[in-house]
Write a structure and sequence with these properties.
The strands form six sheets. An eight-stranded parallel β-sheet has the order 23-22-21-20-16-13-12-24. The chain is an alpha/beta fold. The chain folds into two domains: 141 residues, no CATH class; 367 residues, Alpha-Beta Barrel (TIM Barrel), CATH 3.20.20. The structure holds 4-nitrophenyl alpha-D-galactopyranoside.
Length: 522
Amino acid sequence: MTKIHFSNVQANSKIIKAKEIQVGLPSTPVKYYRHGWQSWSLAAWTDVAGAFPMQKPISFHPYQTDAVYAQESVPHGSWLGAVEYEDGNILLVGALATDTHVFLLKDQLVGRSEAGEVEWFIAYGNETQVFDEYVKQIGVRFGMTAKTHVPRVWCSWYSLYMEINEGVLNQIFDLLGDLPFDVIQVDDGWQKNIGDWQANEKFPSGMASLAEKIKLTGRQAGLWLAPLLVSKSSQLFKEHSNWLLKNDGGALVSAGYNYWGNDLYALDVTHPDVIVWLTSLMKQVRAWGFDYIKLDFLYAGAMKGVRYVDIPREAAYRESLRVMREAIGTDAFLLTCGTPILPALGFSDAIRIGPDVSHEWENHLYEHLLQNFSSPGTRNAIRTVVNRLWLKPLLHIDPDVEYFVSKENTLEEEHKKQLQDLALICNFKATSDLPQWMTEGEREQLRSFLIREPDVLKISRYQYKIDGRIVDFSSSVELVKPPKGFNALLSVIMGWAGNIKLFIRITLSLDNAAKKKRASRI
Ligand code: 9PG
């Protein structure tokens, strides 16, 4: 364990090798920067005083947070942590290696490694400068994307969800007309099962034909898949149960449960047969003709468990991503999603840095009652993305899609605008809006958004200037206060119910039914 005195880092940043590092704080800070593990996990500046409520339900921890640390009550985060002082200066402790965690313990920032001795970056001063320096050091060790062109993407998820089929997609390809998209990306819903990555019965002409049709529109073809996840109902599960991640007791590690309606498990990415399978899957997707690959639910590769090769969990995942990247080739564009952030750097061209947006601003149950800021919702997405913009020098940062339509969408104009502004700041533009749902005016609005190349200037943590206009995210990044009185009781009940499979099953199937109905109004 290495102890660092604040006076040693006050003037100059330091890089120190240690398994555990303790940095003494000069005085009581006002805020703590908690950095969530994967794309959808919360990143936010929170108050130092008072306990931060654990996000609920616990049954969602595997796929929304790092389940290993999710029940910690002290302020903490993955790879880095920072405190802010009254004068606005910050003190940051950030690992330059995977498998690390930072805690705020009384008057110390403590960095701990699950993987032996690692390098720690420690700096004090102006927030932007400190993060810029940290990110530079990460870039040296992890690498950066070489891709300079950022594709403008039409993605099928946020209008149709699972309700895609060959017919409806072909119609959309036609109706998108000359809208300036570079990529049409087919999302979840094309595959036989999670683990069985072949076209299902809704795509009778097959995936190569689908890619071909997209390319005939003059655009690149994009495809979503979740290669490290396995559904219990899949063929893969039946045929290769020895490829799955298990715990110390030999039981399968749960990777969650969601709208697909079956238990999910994780691949042991160090198993030699899994590596061969992943390589051939990536080559297959490329051979079909897809050049833009969205790999999702990647956290599954880094969950805690016993692996064929005994290496730290994030290092294991990172190695599997390296293998997949190599199989995909550098000429294709790789977007990683649901991914632990640090381990994905260097191998991703773009990374999702927040939870899913939605055609709704917030979800009362999840945000207010369950204090869950990783669930789909536009405010949740904006909050975490704004707090992760510091990653931009390394790779393209994906804030998720923007909305332009008013049909089937309850977002207020102001909220749609915030999402669009954030996309301009990220310089990553995407939408799932259906051409069938756009008015002529909305279509023109989308077109001018897609061709815009504005001047963006950072003014402060949450304020930017876009072509001279001030945009302010302060109100959106605020966390929803923990429930009080009757709502506190309701919160306990719902948190408890959220751990019961039957309850989750019913809630998810209601949600699926609503999405189905929505998609049928095309
Ligand atoms: C496809 C989708 C889309 C989307 C991804 C991911 O925590 N959650 O409840 C949760 C739900 C959905 C989700 C992520 C997290 O969506 O981010 O873009 O590809 O999968 O299934």
